[in-house]
Amino acid sequence: MEQSLPSLYSCQPAPSPAKMFFAVNLLLLCAGISASTNLQCTLMSMKLKQIDAGAGEVYGVTSNDDVYRWVDNHWKNIPGKLIHVSAGPAGVWGVNKEKHIYKRQNNTWMSVSGLLKQVDAGGDKFLGGVNTQDNVYCLRQNDTVSGSSSVTWTPLKGSLKYYSCGPLGCWGVNSDDDIYFRHNVNPTTCQGTQQQQIKGSLEMVEVGTDGSVYGVDSAGHVYRRIGINDKNPIGTYWTRLDFSFAFKHVTYDRGYLWLITPNENILRCSVSA
Ligand SMILES: *[C@@H]1O[C@H](CO)[C@@H](O)[C@H](O)[C@H]1NC(C)=O
Ligand SMILES: *[C@@H]1O[C@H](CO)[C@@H](O)[C@H](O)[C@H]1NC(C)=O
Q1: Residue nearest atom 7 of ligand 2, based on CA coordinates
Q2: Is 146 close to ligand 2, i.e. is its CB under 6 Å away?
Q3: Could you tell me the distance, in angstroms and rounded to a whole number, from the CA of residue 213 to the centre of ligand 1?
Q4: For residue 140, which ligand has an atom nearest its CA?
């Protein structure tokens, strides 16, 4: 990546594994070398292939396409089969293996027109997503809240394999792991104004509801974007979280970083400043 910084975190299994009700079978202490930041991580007994935390909700899917929601400190099965799920200000959305799109409404999955392989509900009540050809689309707020199953997707220029939105813009990565930021997205002009390439290389990138940006590269390293604010929504550089093992997926919301290993183990880390 563009900056090589000293390791921020080094994680060690706690001397005696802590057993906790339902979810936790091992406590990992990730001591920040920087005194200002700490990660305290727990390895969960659940396995998921994908997870998304947003707007206070956490949803994930297993390798069998079963859907789970993290609620009251345990994983609750939600009826339905999805390959990808997203929770955020736009609600809870998912896609199934036929690439059909669903919105969680009245405790059921309502089918919505279109075909996508990944959706993201992190925008200001608008939706982003990509299809199997890596074409990028968004759905305006009036269509995400309409309750109608027939919606009009807005196509975006460019080609991305993963796309995620937050309050200050949307981030995506293409098939070469190049990173792009889309400026000035909003509920009515969800496609934004222009796209800018960001230095670095990531396999996936996720924007939190608070605007924080995390990503994972092809080596399984986890990065956080530093310096993001209203005036500089692209931030300034990537900093690597120095875990001693690899991950394939990351998401962040409300003080918790959720990480998935290549074997689909889940690490839940509280991030304290
Ligand atoms: C949403 O807004 C767009 C642009 O103003 C309009 O073309 C479209 O018909 C609206 N959709 C709904 C469901 O109202
Ligand atoms: C959801 O349920 C409420 C109460 O039963 C009902 O009024 C509303 O029409 C339902 N919405 C949809 C989109 O089905």
Answers
A1: 106
A2: no
A3: 30
A4: 1
**Which atom of ligand 2 approaches the CA of 147 most closely?**
13
Spatial distance between the Cα atoms of 108 and 94, rounded to a whole number of angstroms? 12
State the pTM of this model: 0.87
Domains of the chain, by residue range, sit at 45-247
- Of the listed ligands, the closest to the CA of 105 is 2
For ligand 2, whether the C-beta of 105 sits within 6 Å is: yes
One of 3.90.640.10, 2.60.120.330, 3.40.640.10, 2.130.10.30 is the CATH number of 45-247, namely 2.130.10.30
SS (H, E, C) 160-204: CCEEEEECCEEEEECCCCCEEEECCCCCCCCCCCCEEEECCCCCE
Predicted confidence band of residue 99 (pLDDT cuts 50, 70, 90): very high
What integer pLDDT is reported at residue 175 of this predicted model? Answer: 98
What are the tokens at 63? 């390798």
Q: Which residue has the tokens 């009540």?
A: 125
pLDDT tens by residue, 133-172: 999 999 999 999 998 999 999 999 999 999 999 999 999 9
